[in-house]
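Objective 1b: paired records.
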Amino acid sequence: MNTMIAPVMALVAWSLVIWLWMYVRRIPAMSKAGIKPQDAAFPGSLNVLPAGVRAAADNYNHLMEQPTIFYAAALAIQVAGHADGWALHLAWLYVALRVVHSLVQVSVNAVTLRFLVFALSTIALAVMVARELMVLFG
């Protein structure tokens, strides 16, 4: 499959898995803590939940941040007709590293390891973008 659409859709699907994971953990924890849904209307009101519960929500937020650059870049590469083997490998590497980042954050949440994986994913994304810029403006 020589298309950037597959890694894009894989990361979208993974984001939805984390969304589900977040609510599967959050709703019972809110009930146990006696937090009413309306109480969550204000920032920080869910900070009383256990760290493991908050980690999934934090990771979901992370998946709404930098990956937006990935989506734009991957789709631009696809539309430009430049989805070669390297672009695909870099895109899949980015997706794989973001999945690993999620798994680290929602399990052991070791910040140093999480940062390393994040940095590696950012490098993969940067190389993907730099390659495309060289093709476009080279």
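Objective 1b, second protein:
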Amino acid sequence: MQETDLALITDAIRLAGQVATGFVGKDARSWDKPGGAGPVTEADLAVNRALETTLRSARPDYGWLSEESEDSDRRLSEDTLFIIDPIDGTRSFVEGSRTWAHSVAIAHRGYVTAAAVYLPLRDKLYTAALGRGAFCNGAPLTASETQDLEAAEILAAKPVMEPQHWSSGEPRFHRSHRPSLAYRLGLVAEARFDAMLTFRPSWEWDIAAGALIVTEAGGICTDKSGAPLRFNNARPQLNGVIAAGPRLHGEVLAALASEAS
């Protein structure tokens, strides 16, 4: 089933790219969501409609969780569901950058079984199915074998560097940043970076697809305490994320202060 689900979401995510790029170069209307939840654009909503129409017509028995759809408790009774971020990195989209992504995952009983992350303006398509490896544009991915934390190249926002998160104060690794969490996870799977860290509560739709892509590339992806990630929670948030190559993940956990983990 993973293979047919992956084929479905791969076709759908390419359609999402066509819809979204139809707004690129135009002044897509944007506004702020209530409660400081960040911006949304008419492109986000158009992509969400296209994905929901395509995916739910193909799998009407699957539940639905999307950043741009009203949530319902009904999904909690579904064994299998789609987890969608129509545009991850909306601020990047509004600014005209190329680092925004579409993220589509299918989770079964809490675990992701098929995943796709697509950056249409970079022509990068990350895919994975449970037990079948991870790929970028069809080429197999293998996560980094780096073990030295101080030499590691890590994707993280500035708050991750605050000394209180670390047992020995401010860490010495090399920090970079990308606005899309889904893209950051793809870059870890691709071994272009050794790890990705976020200590803030993270929405499932930002993480689900990228998490499977990392683990199918041989990496490890957990919450900030080292606990396995489970999806389709009543409140669809995770306790931060640590995604890293298999040798570095434990080094990151060991370096964290008890407050962070």
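The two ends are 36 Å apart (CA to CA). The domain at 153-255 is CATH 3.40.190.80 (D-Maltodextrin-Binding Protein; domain 2).
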